[in-house]
């Protein structure tokens, strides 16, 4: 249900027992066996591919060359019994294999009860707080796609984060019966065997749909578990479970009793293809700029019909030779015309007021009426044909003028007897052509012109929607919306991002009544009954002849009052309820409402509803309307709308384009041939399959690479920065697989530094023995923790993942792990060694915890390999404390000092690269300040460790200590970096380069001097700007001095 759907609800014919899986059919067993066989084959292929992923410890991502004669690793086989903890006593694998890393953990987490809400000893919410997410239930229509994976990644990230913050958390899983979608897909499958639902009958057909539901609920469950969602599976729900069905019936009856639900014969959106009504939200408007030929579902694919034109024709005036010209974009509807409207002030037609036109094809007099609302005198001829039973605007005219409402359309899209003998039985668009031809034959046709317009399209079937009159059940939404608006404005509901909040107000302020009847067999059948009194002529359209009942006994009791002692029978409405009606009750029905259950008391209202912006009104708004009405509470305090995932080209995901991605395929990888084969599992025809194959070949020429769950989740979160669209590139996901590999290998390497004697300190608090780089990395860890927590609180997953990525890659791996090498070699003191190990342990421990909400599997695997602190019984990283800002890790001066040292290191690397010096690097740091000189002298070992092929680093105080033949860089006005380049450069070229740099520096300096020389500079320029200019001037002056020295030095070397 995380995708928009034009779905319908029906009553469960025989709901599956609650809390237990439905029985598996033989066909489902076969599918399951085949599925397991495929998974084993894919796992074998994945393992073979993974062995090439091994990279050098803590280093870059270079692939190691295959050694001759080296034995290949055996394909990974998960030997851990389900629910038991993985055995990690063996050494770590040679390289990161996501299939191996992700195995066994989920079943263990589930078996340990980590997914259930953690309460205090007396059964109360923990003092840290409560965080509850009612997971948007996916449709049982088919398997999950990558959009669902985004939902899981974001929601589970927030749940795991809040759980680690110590809160009581609940993440409720569930499934939506998805009326229209599921019935449609099952019908298509049956049609392939030549069977229709009518051949089976309602009860047998519904049983077939239950079989489908049980099969796909199992598949989706497997996908959700593979994605790492920490759902409480003890509370899994299905919208047609007995418990949730009870909530649907209670809601319908209660709202009917209060007059909110009513019955009316009104215009509805009719989909001929699906043979059901749709709400306005389920209808898309297709823009046409002019004449367009289109295929229509249900017709020969070679047959196209004309849209985007307006046809004018004439009606003869009764009793005269005069004619009145009208125009229409739907000529066939003239067979249902019951009036012609003109403006009361239009002088052209005043003589026709009260007269009649004669219908050319049916025996019908058509009154000429006056209406100043629907008629614009300046548009067209100023005369408007009125078809009250087939046009929304005309319907209102018909109500105002008490016109006859003539329905000319059967449910199957053919014309009925009201259209006349000539057209009866014709399909609607064949009738369009025939009507125009018949008008031409009678000389009544005038012209057809291009007409830019929108046509209504069914969002599910692609069929052209027909407005028709139907007696249906409706919800009066205005009073519900008024209360929802009032409470939202009062701050009871926060909606983000901002554009979604704006749309929220606009839609609720202009809300229309909601038609909840659907002509389906799959869903919740309306608990409404027609009281058929013997011998009495009754209008079924009139709600007064209907009763509702929570049970048949209650309905019978109410019917007896209406019958007044007369004999009667009860006939339950054949229609079912809109799917969104039942899913609109989701946050409280899953907690046991209408019963006042312990779950309802403790976990409702929920904390956050996260979903796509595209179903903000389909689903979210309806939950708020119904939640406030039924429970007197907002069902959640926050709504977070995520982006719509598109392919790398920005196109919407579509099966016919071949760009719909199964998240499991990204996790374990799939070759192109297997991708092609999956297309045949759906309902695409051969032409669509070939088109999809071409799309797959273009986008995935080598198939989809194996990325793993952690990389997929991290990538989806990294894409989520508040925009409305995500253009997903699988290569980026694969890039985060390399990041997982980096974490794996860095931890593996770091573990070597934690020797067998190592025991972590009882707490992470610094001991006071930390070196400068240790203080720096602890400070950076603290900053990362602070930033990630802030960004998660702000729901900016892009920035949160960015902070975690930067800490691990650029600070821990690239700097500290390299810098600590000399601190752990044989020459280092025991104190230095132990301190560096403790710091490394803290960084790994806290760093993995910071990553866990995004990457649950690899972090658990690696964290479990770390030793525990004394007296720390924490069994899993997912229940470990999440790092937050801690004052004891705040080393601002150390950060400043080491950043200065690291800037010098980067400057020396850059100088060496610019002179193409790859070995025997000799660096001179010229520090004019005593403190800075001492700082650099103390960091020479770190400098050497972090500068590849550096043979020596010397700290000098003035230029006399720098040998001739050095390339130089100004770091600050008092710190200079020099790299010996003598004998390895072209002197003339270097002189030219220095002269160009000198000219640019002199130009920049003159601009700053000019700015500082202005008369009112001190009084008009802010102090911070003046300070920055002064710093720039000093740096430029030092740069100029150094460049002049370098030019002179290189010239002397030439002599």
Automatic annotation (TrEMBL):
<keyword id="KW-0547">Nucleotide-binding</keyword>
<feature type="compositionally biased region" description="Basic and acidic residues">
    <location>
        <begin position="60"/>
        <end position="73"/>
    </location>
</feature>
<dbReference type="GO" id="GO:0005829">
    <property type="term" value="C:cytosol"/>
</dbReference>
<comment type="similarity">
    <text>Belongs to the class-I aminoacyl-tRNA synthetase family.</text>
</comment>
<dbReference type="InterPro" id="IPR009008">
    <property type="entry name" value="Val/Leu/Ile-tRNA-synth_edit"/>
</dbReference>
<dbReference type="GO" id="GO:0002161">
    <property type="term" value="F:aminoacyl-tRNA deacylase activity"/>
</dbReference>
<dbReference type="InterPro" id="IPR002300">
    <property type="entry name" value="aa-tRNA-synth_Ia"/>
</dbReference>
<feature type="region of interest" description="Disordered">
    <location>
        <begin position="1"/>
        <end position="91"/>
    </location>
</feature>
<feature type="compositionally biased region" description="Low complexity">
    <location>
        <begin position="43"/>
        <end position="59"/>
    </location>
</feature>
<dbReference type="GO" id="GO:0005524">
    <property type="term" value="F:ATP binding"/>
</dbReference>
<dbReference type="InterPro" id="IPR002303">
    <property type="entry name" value="Valyl-tRNA_ligase"/>
</dbReference>
<feature type="domain" description="Methionyl/Valyl/Leucyl/Isoleucyl-tRNA synthetase anticodon-binding">
    <location>
        <begin position="774"/>
        <end position="922"/>
    </location>
</feature>
<dbReference type="InterPro" id="IPR014729">
    <property type="entry name" value="Rossmann-like_a/b/a_fold"/>
</dbReference>
<feature type="compositionally biased region" description="Basic and acidic residues">
    <location>
        <begin position="27"/>
        <end position="42"/>
    </location>
</feature>
<keyword id="KW-0030">Aminoacyl-tRNA synthetase</keyword>
<keyword id="KW-0963">Cytoplasm</keyword>
<dbReference type="InterPro" id="IPR013155">
    <property type="entry name" value="M/V/L/I-tRNA-synth_anticd-bd"/>
</dbReference>
<protein>
    <recommendedName>
        <fullName>Valine--tRNA ligase, mitochondrial</fullName>
        <ecNumber>6.1.1.9</ecNumber>
    </recommendedName>
</protein>
<dbReference type="GO" id="GO:0004832">
    <property type="term" value="F:valine-tRNA ligase activity"/>
</dbReference>
<dbReference type="GO" id="GO:0005739">
    <property type="term" value="C:mitochondrion"/>
</dbReference>
<dbReference type="GO" id="GO:0006438">
    <property type="term" value="P:valyl-tRNA aminoacylation"/>
</dbReference>
<feature type="domain" description="Aminoacyl-tRNA synthetase class Ia">
    <location>
        <begin position="105"/>
        <end position="728"/>
    </location>
</feature>
<dbReference type="Pfam" id="PF00133">
    <property type="entry name" value="tRNA-synt_1"/>
</dbReference>
<dbReference type="InterPro" id="IPR009080">
    <property type="entry name" value="tRNAsynth_Ia_anticodon-bd"/>
</dbReference>
<keyword id="KW-0648">Protein biosynthesis</keyword>
<keyword id="KW-0436">Ligase</keyword>
<dbReference type="InterPro" id="IPR033705">
    <property type="entry name" value="Anticodon_Ia_Val"/>
</dbReference>
<dbReference type="InterPro" id="IPR001412">
    <property type="entry name" value="aa-tRNA-synth_I_CS"/>
</dbReference>
<dbReference type="Pfam" id="PF08264">
    <property type="entry name" value="Anticodon_1"/>
</dbReference>
<keyword id="KW-0067">ATP-binding</keyword>
<dbReference type="InterPro" id="IPR037118">
    <property type="entry name" value="Val-tRNA_synth_C_sf"/>
</dbReference>
